[in-house]
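Protocol step 6 of 9: fold each sequence in the batch and record its structure tokens directly after the sequence line. For illustration, a two-sequence batch is reproduced in full.

Sequence one:
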Amino acid sequence: MSHSPSSDEPAEFAVDSHPDAPPDGDRWSTWDGAAHGPGPRPSWVVTDLGAVDADLGVLKTGKEADVHVVRRWVPGDPTHDVFLAAKRFRNSKHRMFHRDAGYLEGRRVRRSRENRAMARRTDFGKEMISGRWAFAEFETLGALWTAGLPVPYPVQFDGTEILMEFIGADGLAAPRLADSRPPETALAGLFDQVREAMLSLAEMGWAHGDLSPYNVLLDVDRIVLIDWPQIVDVIGNPHGFEFLERDARTMAAWFTRRGYAVDPDEFFAQLLGAATSRW
């Protein structure tokens, strides 16, 4: 993520159902009618239906989705004013499907027609996959946040948009680990945070599936893991161990290059042991 949002792309919002235009914003709060994150809900979450949302620009672009900075506030009430990250998934005509298959193995829906459509990449199947990526990330964030992992709190889900906790301060995003230059004295502590998060995830039977310093945020001195739509069932997915090993080696290599040596084989063995401990 970059430090400052830009406005390279126009915002796309749902049709406003409120009879009046929102004051100084782009839309009224979409809280009503959306799926909500798990409890206990953080105190900073704004649930007032009189709240207003304003899009402050694109924070990050990706293959499957773009992330915007959104400010949500209640006019006249300075105690209800927060920044959120709005992840908006592309529809089937504007996203790439070449890497979906490997991640989706081990995930099945009940209806055989839908499974066949997704496997064959029909138009209906692509729409199914697009919706599943978005909802899968929202559900995953909720489960991981509840389990105490360092992930953004998922505020709400509405179709193909996830509103989640903004990691940073005053509208400026925390840097990606890849873009940061922490002192060598801080590397051991940062790696311990990464290892504990990955071990906890593995004990739950999961691997991030695409973990790298580009989807780890450094919020002052704590790490936050982002980008979860491709989360992999380590046991259910026939390539689960490969995804787990790739995550381990990628993170070990980054810390080693920065001056804190991490043995990738030993790290992977720890994660594998955690993932298979329930067998």
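Sequence two, same batch, same settings:
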Amino acid sequence: MKELTYRDSEMYITQRTMAEDLVRTRILGDRKGLPGEPLYLHSFRVRDLVSRCHHWDDPEYDVFLAALLHDVVEDGGVSLDELRSMGFTDRTVELVDLCTHQMDIKNSTERWVLMMARLVEARDDGAWRIKMADLTDNLTQCRGLSPENRRFMVETKAPLMIRLTEGLGFNKMIFQDSVAPIVLLVAEMERQRAEKAALV
């Protein structure tokens, strides 16, 4: 069994409560295109998916916390130094950093490509699991996106991320049972929309 960064579940529970409060109070507003759907709930769903797809004989508390905090820098204006000062471990902060876009880059596609490059270079299984759970939840709610953003997610982001994570040994729930069917479903919906638009 690998050595844990958090020595016991009691410390993790304390940190989890702090992370949940931070996400609720700093990630404000509604999901893009989905009025009435609080933005912060996405972070909870990503954490829950990562947690469910884990072997509980060897809990990776840092990965669970980073999954919860994965958007707190870019959507909540929290710095990595603030996370460290709150007592989150170096491993948790490292994972959050790997899963965070560089917001000083204006072009969103360029930001995403650079984040993918960092993930590929880091070869960090925990960070990839967080990003795949993030993608899974985003795909389930992509109806709120513009048609262009939906197409980019379904035709570019999802296939590339699935390809990049092949062979990393994720629990099958994230890779085969969640992401792939959603990608196929949304791709089919997009194809049908395009066909209807062509007929008009």
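Proceed to step 7 once all outputs are recorded. Observation for sequence two: The chain has one domain: 9-199.
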